[in-house]
Write a sequence for this structure.
């Protein structure tokens, strides 16, 4: 077992929790106050600083030569969890497990669309990087 | 054609037009991030990453996720039907009455698939197995952050009324 493995897992967990909390604590409020410019500013501040923390400094564990785990994943998880918990008090009589499962059952159509679109883009970018001049010349070096 | 594309499906929670728009929105954001972000970071270092966050995520947030109804001109300009319509490409299903699905899911998937495509044959299975625990811990972290942020709805603090 690699040294410090659980510590790396803990930092991955903490990095995910912070980027998720920032995105869904700050983004809706900024959007509701400043509209489009609020969302744009939030992208700069929240994604900018959490990218710096998670990926530039490396709080989310991404060893060299492995499959990249992007901070989009914790943001997605946080969006779903936040959506479930935040609006639960609107329906206080709701049964816990059934409420959560019902909410999860509703998100799959959009999630499938996002996953399909994202995976297609991943494949397309793989081939694009072989022909796009800046990337192609980079590969040759 | 118009009728088929704009028929709301109770099973999916959206119209066929929304499905097409959502897939394209996810594709566009992910492709742009995959191509531009690493290059900008290579050219400008950490500042390139913050620049990417502003320009890529900021712009694609507007394309994919902006909902009308708040801000400087909250009502927008009504379109020909007399209504204000959602113009975010990634449709939030069931007319928004379900948890938020972020384009982050698409960007994560894109990066993961992209790295998998770039890997040498024969090493892919090992790489996938290696990434699973990291995916689990990152996702668990996100869920914890989302739950804790969502708890403010339980605080019962009713302001301004």
């Amino acid at each position: 077992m690699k040294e410090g493995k659980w510590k790396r897992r803990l930092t991955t967990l903490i990095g995910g929790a912070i980027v998720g909390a920032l995105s869904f604590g700050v983004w809706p409020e900024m959007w509701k106050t400043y509209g489009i410019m609020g969302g744009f500013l939030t992208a700069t501040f929240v994604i900018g600083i959490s990218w710096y923390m998670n990926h530039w400094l490396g709080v989310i564990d991404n060893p060299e030569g492995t499959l990249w785990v992007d901070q989009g994943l914790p943001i997605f998880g946080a969006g779903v969890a936040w959506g479930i918990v935040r609006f639960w008090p609107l329906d206080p009589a709701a049964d816990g497990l059934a409420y959560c499962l019902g909410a999860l059952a509703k998100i799959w159509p959009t999630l499938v669309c996002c996953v399909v679109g994202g995976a297609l883009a991943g494949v397309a970018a793989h081939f694009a990087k072989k022909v796009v001049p800046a990337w192609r010349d980079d590969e040759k070096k | 054609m118009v009728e088929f594309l704009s028929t709301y499906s109770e099973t999916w929670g959206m119209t066929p037009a929304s499905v097409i728009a959502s897939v394209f929105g996810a594709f566009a954001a992910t492709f742009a991030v995959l191509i531009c972000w690493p290059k900008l970071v290579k050219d400008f270092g950490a500042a390139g990453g913050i620049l990417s966050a502003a320009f890529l995520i900021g712009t694609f947030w507007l394309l994919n996720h902006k909902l009308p109804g708040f801000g400087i001109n909250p009502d927008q300009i009504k379109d020909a039907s007399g209504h204000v319509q959602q113009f975010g490409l990634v449709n939030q299903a069931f007319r928004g009455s379900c948890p938020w699905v972020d384009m982050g899911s698409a960007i994560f998937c894109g990066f993961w698939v992209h790295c998998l495509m770039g890997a040498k044959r024969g090493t892919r299975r090992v790489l996938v197995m290696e990434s699973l625990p990291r995916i689990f811990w990152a996702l668990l972290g996100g869920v914890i952050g989302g739950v804790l942020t969502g708890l403010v709805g339980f605080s019962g603090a009713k302001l301004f009324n």
In short: Residues 2-98 of chain B form one domain. Chain B touches chain A through 90 residues (CB under 8 Å). DSSP finds five helices and no strands in chain B.
